[in-house]
Design brief:
Radius of gyration: 25 Å
Distance between the termini: 48 Å
Number of strands: 2
Shape: flat
Strand order of the largest sheet: 1-2
């Protein structure tokens, strides 16, 4: 007689352990996202929420009063992101490659110095750099004057053509330790046998990094790239701390986060509009979602194919 295999028991302990995290994530992330999307489809008429469908999005993208601010914020946000991609991540990779060298002395101290700014408050960083770069009482003019380069100093946070780039570089200074640590961990995870085999083939120094280490850490580089994208298109704190809700001068540092905050909560120049604020937040969500999906379904697959 053939033995009947017992049905596998449902593993309830998995549900018990996952339930708290799922409930908390749903309460503080999933529900607010869907509520924001819902609010973007309504407008306020005599203190009554009226369903208008996509009209708020048509207003945001097409109405001159709203569209100019939106496209300006999107352009500034894209520039903010590109500076991080072109400066922060390559320099972070370079620092990780240098600090992962076993011959480097005091590497732990150097890593600490690089990562410390990332744990500082945005408010502290924003006000500190605003004081440092102040043309009246900042130390930047004095430092440049001490080396005979005072003519190069400009009120970088006060000029439209310099303000956004200056704040982007301040953000790079603050967060360069994060890609450095991620790449540093990826470099340390490379098996020694692979590096020794490369040495036998005459690959050392930069050639070893370019031909052996870099292909192996491409997935990690992809991860820090998408984290940079999501973080930069969610940025708000540094701009607000340094330049205020109006993101001056003349909205030259206005990004999607400050534009959404100013619209949602209002400021001295306008009343708050929760429905248009939710519309901007939904547009931000859509931009980030498209970028993440592009990474997951296009770039990440190619990285895996290249790696293996």
């Amino acid at each position: 007689m053939q033995d009947v295999k017992p049905k596998p028991r449902f593993k309830w302990h998995i549900v018990v352990f996952l339930a708290p995290a799922v409930l908390i994530y749903t309460a503080i992330m999933i529900i607010p996202i869907f509520n924001t999307l819902r609010m973007s489809l309504f407008t306020d008429v005599d203190n009554t929420q009226v369903f208008v469908g996509w009209q708020n999005f048509n207003t945001l993208f097409g109405d001159e009063r709203w569209a100019d601010h939106f496209w300006n914020a999107l352009k500034n946000n894209s520039w903010f992101f590109m500076i991080h991609m072109l400066v922060q991540n390559p320099v972070g990779i370079l620092l990780a490659a240098i600090l992962s060298s076993p011959k480097l002395r005091f590497a732990a101290a150097y890593r600490t110095v690089v990562i410390v700014p990332a744990i500082l408050s945005f408010v502290i960083v924003g006000f500190a750099w605003k004081l440092i770069l102040s043309p009246l009482w900042g130390i930047a003019p004095w430092l440049l004057d001490s080396v005979g380069l005072k003519s190069l100093f400009h009120p970088w946070l006060g000029k439209e053509e310099y303000a956004l780039t200056t704040l982007s570089l301040i953000s790079v200074w603050q967060f360069i330790g994060i890609p450095m640590l991620l790449i540093y961990a990826a470099l340390l995870s490379i098996p020694e046998e692979v590096l020794e085999a490369g040495e036998c083939d005459g690959l050392t120094g930069f050639s070893a990094f370019w031909k052996i280490k870099l292909p192996l850490i491409l997935p990690s580089i992809g991860i820090i790239s998408i984290l940079t994208f999501v973080g930069n298109f969610n940025a708000f704190d540094l701009i607000y701390a340094a330049q205020g809700a109006l993101a001056g001068p003349n909205y030259s540092t206005d990004i999607l986060g400050t534009f959404m905050y100013r619209t949602f909560f209002g400021n001295q120049l306008q009343l708050g509009d929760v429905n248009m604020g939710a519309t901007i937040a939904s547009a931000m969500f859509g931009i980030i979602l498209v970028g993440v999906c592009l990474y997951l379904f296009a770039i990440q697959r190619r990285l895996r194919r290249y790696q293996f």
